[in-house]
Amino acid sequence: MLMISPRMATGMQEKQYTPSLLSFFIYNPSFGPREGEEEKKILFYHPCDVEKNEKIRNVGLCEAIVQFTRTFCPTKPAKSLHTQKNRQFFFEPEDNFWIVMVVRNPMIEKPNKDGKPPTIEYQEEEILDTVYGAVLRQCYSMYKLFNGTFGRAMEAGGVELLTQKLEKFFYRYLQTLHLQSCDLLDVFGGISFFPLDKMTYLKIQSFVNRVEESLSLVKYTAFLYNDQLIWSGLEQDDMRILYKYLTTSLFPRHSEPELAGRDSPLRPEVAGNLLHYGRFLTGPANLKDPEAKFRFPKIFVNKEDSYEELHLIVYKAMSAAACFMISASVELTREFCEQLDSLVGPQLTLLASDICEQFNINRRISGPDKEPQFKFIYFNHMNLAEKSTIHMRKTASVSLTSVHPDLMKILGDINCDFARVDEDEEIIVKAMTDYWVVGKKSDQRELYVILNQKNANLIEVNEEVKRLCATQFNNIFFLD
Amino acid sequence: MSDEHYLELCDNPVQFENASSVNNVFFDEANKQVFAVRSGGATGVVVKGPDDKNSVAFRMDDKGEVKCIKFSIGNKILAVQRTSKAVMFCQMNLQCVVLEVSCLCFVFRSLQTKNASVLGFCWTNWNEIVFITDQGIEFYQVFPDKRSVKLLKSQSINVNWYQYCPETAVILLSTTVQGNVLQPFAFRSGTMSKMSKFEIELPVVPKPAKLSLSERDIAMATIYGQLYVMYLKHHSRTANSPSAEVVLYHLPREGACKKSHVLKLNTTGKFALNIVDNLVVVHHQSSQTSLIFDIRLREPDCAVNTHQPVLPARSIHPYRIPLSDSSSWSVFQPDIIISASEGYLWYLQVKLPPTVNLLQDKGKLMDFLLRRRDCKMVILSVCSQILEGGEKGSLPVVATVFDKLNQVYKEYLEAEQTYTLAMESGPSRGSAAQKRPVRTQAVIDQSDMYTHVLSAFTERKGVSHKFIIAVLMEYIRSLNQFQITVQHYLYELVIKTLVQHNLFYMLHQFLQYHVLSDSKPLVRATPQPRLSTANDEIVEVLLSKQQVLGALRFIRSVGGHDNVSARKFLDAAQQTGDQMLFYTVFRFFQQRNQRLRGNPAFNPGEHCEEHVVHFKQLFGEQALMKPATV
């Protein structure tokens, strides 16, 4: 159920613009400290067709703001700058390297009579620092996942290599940023875990351990089902960003062929392999192809003080996906891929159908899915577990939400309030129409509930949320 | 390779005077007694049983050559057969060691058919005896006081030879001209019941018909609680059987006898059979080796109920006394080997440790071991061995072994539970059927695994933590698969290993899916306490194992270090006696206080006064953190 914005419904001629990316640039002040050398500071600038002097001006302005705010708090310089038309976000991921993202505020264009140019109304309070600050940090994390730190590129090939890498990565990545649909979930950057009974979970453990034992090259394994995580051998922060990549980029790109029928031309060639449904999502599309290349994307993960470079093999059978990570110093051969395919394929196929069966049994036991009277977002800071009934489906392009953006904004505001204090608290907001929004923070967990109850009062809403907690969250990962 | 003999003779054989021209030796399978009869009994009869209590010596008059001599059950009455027509009964008074028995004797010759000759007799009770003659079977009760016997039952039938299984009190008669129709009778306190007869398939049917089934080729024994007739089917050139085999016929109390198992010997020659620990042992005379078969062990590559030897043929472990010629041994059921010429009676035994190296397939090895009597330590050593190897691909083997152990463990737990329930519901109803389940050695529970295998394994140097965790998870997986409640000490092992290697995120994930948290019922409330409780539990475990820093690191990783009790950690640190550790922990909490309250001092509510004193004693007043001056 997609809510129609009341503002969209009224005034036919009014035009609403969602927040959008104005510019995105990366600079390092230490690269051009002298006058006349300012251009050297700029490592990446989007859009690229901006005139040089304007680039230099904009970078200089950011530099000045950061410097200026430093005088108030040396350790925490400004993170964002609010203006009427746009908002700028500053982030220093590595010493002296700054990433700046400029987002245009959402606006409403009201046509005027008598042929006058339309009035533009900027809604400068509509976007949240926390959300876009998180998006900016995510940009860097994603770059780092595939390229390592800026410092690493500098060591390897100086500014030249770094600018190349930045160009290559961000050119594509920025196109996939959909700033209009960013919300609270971007702040959390959580991981959705697949609910599973203990026994099936242990079977998966057993599978992972066996594969790692027989393919000793495999250093880490992650296991996902239905785009939800079940097991990660990677550390939490690495998994968080890898999960983001898998679920918003890699899996959606490959879901279409799977949805297509068996004989559809979209479906990759699987002929001659009827024993299992396993296939590589990264690396060779078809092992039988004599021309097949055995190159896999490389990722960088944290290891104590340094980084570890790994091949990322993503292998999928039906809805189960296993990521195998292998040290990048090893060259992966056809033989290895064939061995992996013949070992993992059948087991993963079997496991996938096991999980599916178990999941269906559990769902039957827990009763039919009736449309609940509420929607919620849950997040646990400790294990990054998130669960949302507000978001329909994450795709490469948009994340569809089933509630009005205004309600999402309220959720974001409550989250900001929670971030200010360490204490457990609860906030109940009466929103327009019949909605109540309840935020609960307790220890490391946050829960946001949107209730739609006509004429409910505060006490009733409170009772309802209590009941909801008792029924829904006593076993959030556990359906049996 | 040092020792591959998986069969051995017992250490304490029954020794008796060896057979000679003046000394006849008899063996009674029912009481397992050896009778050494010197000069027809005139110079003494020495009876040796399995233990000293059953040993008797007496004298009797020499009234001719003794053909057979047996005590009734409990040594109450002695029956002596000297001719084919008569048997003498004597009542024994076993108070004295040496007796003159002649005065108490009476001779019984009132057989049903006058001209029948007695093939033999068997005691089925302290005073009940069965005579087998060539013309039938007669069941008597003996009254030694009255010097009389009473016929209980008889049956006319032509008998070639007979076999007796004392364990089940079943007598098997060979009838018909070829001798291959076998008629079993069962005896129980005064009753004789005829069981259904059956026919042994002969490899070749002789023409004209003649006795073709020898008594040497038939044996009776109970295997896994069931009575079987074992038929040694020799290879024959005419029939399509290249080598000899043993055919087992299952003889149930009720119902028809059925051919149930075929044991492939893969060789020819002379054989003898024993049953040891429910294994069929086949001795091959010419090669001086023995084979063992387990009828419960399924062969994947064989037709149903056809069995190959479990292990390659090996000779019996050499006995400490050099023996002249083992081919002169006599073999009795179930597990007795007698050398009359040397004067020894041995029990045959299976030695399990050598089987471990002879049977490469660990799954099959476990199946085999789990059905043996003294298997526990061997099984545990096999478990340690497969974990020690750590060779590639051993996890599936480990999993198979764990599953097999837990299958047996689960069956025992279930039986125990059923019994307990039956006892609780009142012993009145059908209590006779309810027997407390016996815990055999094959029941390897979690504490056995922990004590003998897992704790040592996790401590061992040079084993990758990945493998340790994989093995522990595999064991927990197997327990769960059989719905066995996992004991907390296994979780502790997992937690300890994870913490030692700083794998906190893995630990979290296990907690998240409740893999590690079912040991204590945790409070289920909204929406968070389950994990918190599990965290507390982990901290407790670590502190109790004196892993104070590990506990701190863990609680910090879950973000709980602001709320934990400093006292608990300081106590644990102080207990270790490690001053630097105490210093570190103390400092950690001072810094925490500073961060939370702007003052490094402990609040009175934290009850850390004694630790502050202790700290001052160790490191001096100056070492204390001072409140930051503004």
From TrEMBL, chain A:
Belongs to the CCZ1 family. Residues 218-344 form the CCZ1/INTU second Longin domain. Residues 370-468 form the CCZ1/INTU/HPS4 third Longin domain. InterPro entries: Ccz1 (IPR013176), CCZ1/INTU/HSP4_longin_1 (IPR043987), CCZ1/INTU/HSP4_longin_3 (IPR043989), CCZ1/INTU_longin_2 (IPR043988). Residues 22-148 form the CCZ1/INTU/HSP4 first Longin domain. This is CCZ1 homolog, vacuolar protein trafficking and biogenesis associated. GO terms for biological process: vesicle-mediated transport. GO terms for cellular component: Mon1-Ccz1 complex. Pfam families: Intu_longin_1, Intu_longin_2, Intu_longin_3.
TrEMBL record, chain B:
It comes from the Eukaryota. Residues 372-522, 530-603 form the Mic1 domain. Coiled coil: none annotated. InterPro entries: RMC1 (IPR040371), RMC1_C (IPR009755), RMC1_N (IPR049040). One of its GO terms (cellular component) is Mon1-Ccz1 complex. GO terms for biological process: regulation of autophagy. Pfam families: RMC1_C, RMC1_N. Residues 25-149 form the Regulator of MON1-CCZ1 complex N-terminal domain. This is Regulator of MON1-CCZ1. It comes from Myripristis murdjan. The gene is RMC1.
